[in-house]
Amino acid sequence: MFKQIARNTTLMGAGTLASRVFGFIRDILIANFFGTSAGLEAFLVSFRIPNLFRSIFAEGFSDSVATPVLSTYRKDKKKMFEIGQDLICVLSFALLIFTIIGIIFAKYFVILAAPGFISQSYKFNLAVSFTQITFFYLFLIGLSANFTSLLYASKRFFVPAISPIFLNICFIGGILIFGRIAGVKVLVFSVLLGGACQMLFSFFALYRIGLKIKFNIKKALNNSEVIKMFKLFAGRLLSSIIYHVSVLVDTIFASLTFIAGQGALASIYYANRLIQLPFAIVILSLSRVVIVDLSFYHKSKDLEKFKELLIFSFENVIFFVLPVTVIFLFIPRGIVDAVFGRGEFDLYSLGITSAVLFFYSFGLLFFCGIRLMVNSFYALADTKTPAKSAGMALLVNIVLSGILIFPLGAGGIALGSSLAAIFNFFLLYFLLQKKIGAISLKSIKKYFFKVLALSISCGLLSQKVWDYFPYNKYIKIAIVGVASLAIFLLIGYFLKIKQIKLFWQWILKKR
Q1: pLDDT tens digits, residue range 247-287?
Q2: Which residues 6+ apart lie within 8 Å of 511 measured at CB?
Q3: How far apart are CA 336 and CA 348, in angstroms?
Q4: What integer is the mean pLDDT of 235-254?
Q5: Residue 353 has what DSSP assignment?
Q6: Residue 141, number of CB atoms within 10 A of its CB
Q7: Are 345 and 452 in the same domain?
Q8: Is 472 exposed, middle or buried, given 0-12, 13-18 or 19+ CB atoms closer than 10 A?
Q9: Quick one: 508 exposed, middle or buried, by C-beta within 10 A (0-12, 13-18, 19+)?
Q10: Domain hosting residue 230, numbered range
């Protein structure tokens, strides 16, 4: 079982890594061409709004409801495709209506998402016009997300992992060809082209494995499984709204430039892109693979296997995410400088983004753990508990960000989010144990401290290399990466960290 999960996670991780590499190139170009300018911040708000609804109604629906329900029919492909066809039919109409509403009320969405823009007419008007265009992306990516739920249920993970690469390619091509001519507007039209490419790629992947889409809205609305999904989503909807409002809290506070500082919203975007790399490669890949099996174990009433898989997943999150977290904490300025420090991304941009990355790093491991916990509840067909936990964490986030923004500026917003994530993770862990019984963490505790000690060693080494080596930033960051990885693999072997032992066994076998 675990070998298959590891293989599928690696497959998804490889696809996600390829997409994220292109994503980094995209962000490097954005930083180089637009820095932390007002025009870029207007675009970021306009992109954040449809992305918010996409996460709730598209990927949120897909991950929490569609994939777990469809996965129970994975041995009956005909039935699974019949349900999927009706689901896509209903969602197409719903997404179209919602997109039209979004275009009409774009002005009010911008006011809610970035109230600080109201006093800056140029930024505000630009954000509104951009939002009216980017709402078309919601329709395209909404369909794509629900195509991928059928691919996940069919245990086909590579296409969903790699499809975001099209969005990044469209950004890269658009910026390089039209960036100097069209300015920040090129980002808006790149979004639409990328969304169309993602949707078509996912559709053709499904078509190849036998899905034929027929639009019969009356039949679709009478499908009992589709009705069941929407009923389940009612609980998930509250959870998803609360979670993404929590994410939006960062944008709202960051738009208050007279407190957070000029360019705060852009700095949060750049820092988030770095934080999202390990999150996407590890936890998104892992959680989307394991939810299929967790749902199956729940249906089979095999809670021991459920817990065993959950513990296995946590160990892998610790192994991959903790070292990155420590490196981010020890050399945030070096990482930001090496990735974004060129062109319009000046010393001010470097300083504010480094501070935000540092404070977000405290919550990275917990952001990942929350995703795994939440998907465990979804596999149990429980969408209400994560909603309650997210609601309490939202209040913590608002209070802490509102307090910490004054002494720490944009960094205070990031620290508030990190502390809220820590609170949310432990609350979810407590509530999950109440639902399925005790989850033994003895092996994880010992494992955690081994990986932590090893990660701190790598962090200290990285800091010394960055501070004292007289090379340019690119050579230094390369030395940091190679030296840290070497220390991690060598000492980790003697500490008997099992993933590293398996790695060395694989290397020696290849030789």
Answers
A1: 678 888 998 888 888 889 999 989 998 988 877 766 766 76
A2: none
A3: 12
A4: 75
A5: H
A6: 28
A7: no
A8: exposed
A9: exposed
A10: 2-440
- Integer angstrom CA distances of residue 445 from 234, 245, 275, 436, 449: 36, 32, 24, 20, 6
Of 52-66, 395-409, 427-441, where does the model show the most confidence? 395-409
d(C-alpha 201, C-alpha 204), whole Å: 5
Q: Which of 261, 291, 417 is nearest to 353 (CA)?
A: 261
**Looking at the structure, do residues 375 and 479 belong to the same domain, yes or no?**
no
pLDDT confidence bin for 169, thresholds 50/70/90? very high
Q: Whole-model pTM?
A: 0.76
Predicted confidence (pLDDT) at residue 2 exceeds the cutoff of 80: no
* Contacts of residue 28, Cβ cutoff 8 Å, sequence gap at least 6: 339, 340, 342
- Residues 414 and 492 occupy one common structural domain: no
Burial class (CB in 10 A: 0-12, 13-18, 19+), 412: buried
Please identify, among 407, 440, 473, the residue that sits at the C-terminal boundary of a domain: 440
Indicate the residue among 414, 440, 466 that finishes a domain.
440
Neighbours of 470 (CB within 10 A): 6
The end-to-end CA distance of the chain, in Å, is: 27
| Nearest Cα residue to 241 out of 101, 115, 92, 391 | 391
The CA distance from 212 to 206, in Å, is: 8
- In angstroms, rounded to a whole number, what is the distance separating the alpha carbons of residues 161 and 53? 20
The structural domain count of the chain equals 2
